[in-house]
Amino acid sequence: MGFGYVELERAALESTYEGLATVTEKKDVKDPATGKTRQQPVVVLADEPCALSQTSLPAATQTMTADQINYDAKLFISPDVSIKPGSRIKVLQNGMVFEGEQTGKAFRYATHQEIKLKEVLNA
Known about the structure:
Blueprint: H1 6-14, E1 19-30, E2 37-54, E3 59-62, E4 67-70, E5 72-77, E6 88-93, E7 96-102, E8 107-108, E9 113-119
Antiparallel strand pairs: 1-2, 1-6, 2-5, 3-4, 5-9, 6-7, 7-9, 8-9
């Protein structure tokens, strides 16, 4: 396989996806009981195949109660899905759960898209 065969390249990349992503966005939701509209987290994408990669070495922070380790990560996912900046993304991969927030606009390729994530603790 050489370069220039988008369908084959995409299939090869997607064969490496070991994770599942659930994407949540804040949306206006009207409470039927009170009639008030409030911003609520709403799942807009569930169990989407993906791959998660660490982009920087974790920085450890010592607090009075526990040590915290924060990660930055990069999500690889289908170019067919639309994920808005600021979305919360939960990834289950290799028995690990990572919860992060999209920190910018997705970078799209014909074969995939890459999304930078910042870990969200106590999400």
